[in-house]
Predict the 3D structure of the following.
Amino acid sequence: RTRAVGTAAMLLVARVLSRGIALVTVFATATFLGRVGNGEFQATVTYAALISILIDLGFNTLYTREGARNPEQIPHYLRSVLSSRALFALPALAVLAVTMSLSGLQSLLLPAFALMVMSAYSNVLRSTFYAIGKLTYEAFAILGEAVILLAGTLYGVQSHRGVGFFLWSYVVSYAFSCCYFVAVISAKRMVRWGWELDTTFLRSWFRKSLPFALAFVITTLYFKIDVPILLHFKGFSQVGVYLFAYKPMEALLFVPVTILNVAFPVLAVYHEESQERLLKATGRFYKALLGLGWPITVGTVVLASGINGLFDRSGQFEEAARALQALGAGIFLMFVTNAFIAALNAMDRQVLFTWAAAVSLVVNVGLNLLLIPAYGYLGAAWATNLTELALLVTGWLMVRKVLGPVPLLQLSWRIVLAGLLMGAVLYLFHTAHGWSVLVAILVGMVVYGVGLLLFRALEPEELALARRALLRRG
């Protein structure tokens, strides 16, 4: 456990740095391209992410789990999954071409396809290091990606390039990580490279990965389907505003994803050892995610206008502050649902999570179709929050059924009080703009830390675990 906590802390630091750099690139791109251009750019990225489902088919998650359980089989698994990606890319290209044509974005097909393929290969290569728990290489990779993307974006702005150029910048950053991971794996002699398209193996894995694939399809549609619906009803301009607000929130989602990637192999091993230990670990995972997500929710709701102003130096996206405030209210939900996702997948109960995700997708599509025509991007924001609530309740009930009850109230109330204390202090700064917003954020962090100690939100064992992890990492 100490190793897992230390690894998560190291990755979080690297992710914070990379996301800070990435935010500069995102908002530099948005400001340069304007509302419509940013809408075209973000819609293309969204379509690439949606259709990448056809390349992955759930193999990535299955590879991480099976690689953690059977590290001696990683060379065989990796060669097979990499080979399958080349095969599955062909039908994905056909679907992408039709989608881009129907949306009037056919001129961006080539960079969109390259982005889809490079990100798919990058994800499976980096999953090798999550499976074996050696994530120092991942930390360097994500920082390298961010720096390369920043350089490409700034060059594009200075040389007045079009939407396609900024897409190619993303492609190059993913290509870098692919080359980097291949070099590290080769240097460590972890894998003997080669083409390995074993149809028997692929059929076997397809059966195992089908629940993961369905869950991936459903959750990706859930996270991304609001963009095509908003585009259909309101056009590229509102898509540009909505995703301008969505990006700061999306940038924060690396926190639960990073912890999930570290915790998932550990939970999978606990499942083999002790259900009681797994239940306890799931509760701690939930508590850690709530402890990180709740203050972000409170701070974003109170300081939304000032935070948006930090990114919108040109004044083109002033409306995005309202969307950011609405989206901010649901950030903590997006954090804590990962605890139940990880627990179900670790127990080989991915079918149950598939059902939970399916419920969420139905709720999400219905809410978006109901709210977007009337309220535009604000309707999309609240549809996202309400769907996350549905996913949280469904996931908790399913874990309760197959593992045992995670005591949400007992784990949550002290953290909630600490966050509310922080919110009361932050309200004094709710009109802050410019760099004074950063001062308010720092004040909020201090107050929240004091609140955690005041309400005794952290148990002695949790403090000792964190201290050992930090000392070990140091």
